[in-house]
Design a protein that fits this description.
This is L-arabinokinase. It comes from Brassica napus. The protein has 150 residues and is an alpha/beta fold. It has a domain of 93 residues: HAD superfamily/HAD-like (Rossmann fold), CATH 3.40.50.1000. It has five helices and eight strands; from the N terminus they run βββαβββαααβαβ. The protein has a four-stranded parallel beta sheet with strand order 4-3-7-8, with helices on both faces. A two-stranded antiparallel sheet has the order 1-2. A two-stranded antiparallel sheet has the order 5-6. α4 packs across α5. The two termini are 26 Å apart.
Amino acid sequence: MKIDDNEGVSASRKHLVFAYYVTGHGFGHASRVVGVVRHLIAAGHDVHVVTGAPDFRDSVLLDCGAVQAGALTVDRLASLEKFMSFTLFVMLPLPQYVETTVVPRAEILKTEVEWLHSIKTDFVVFDVVPVACRAAADAGIHSVCVTNFR
């Protein structure tokens, strides 16, 4: 944004490329992102959406999400247990998340950084996908988390 004494506040007309990472947990995150993405596209920007949401064309698992006891209720204990099982390395079979996200984290970050550079990303936006923040930092790209948590 720039402030012009004669015209007030106006947005820059520069075309930007956004990488928008969205958790695949639930539909609240995805539905919130739709409005933001539509606005960015309508403003003439390119937006690449990355998500683990089911039935999404380019689905990728990058975060663990929470365990829900119901449509609007999170089971805190089960969520903590799920998280701990993802981060502790024991001699039991590793859950899918650990096998696909925690163990190869360095490779995931390398791949994401390369991809961000390949699409000439100007800005990374993420709705609760922490690895996106790290990938953006490693790529030297500014990022922001957009969510409604208090």
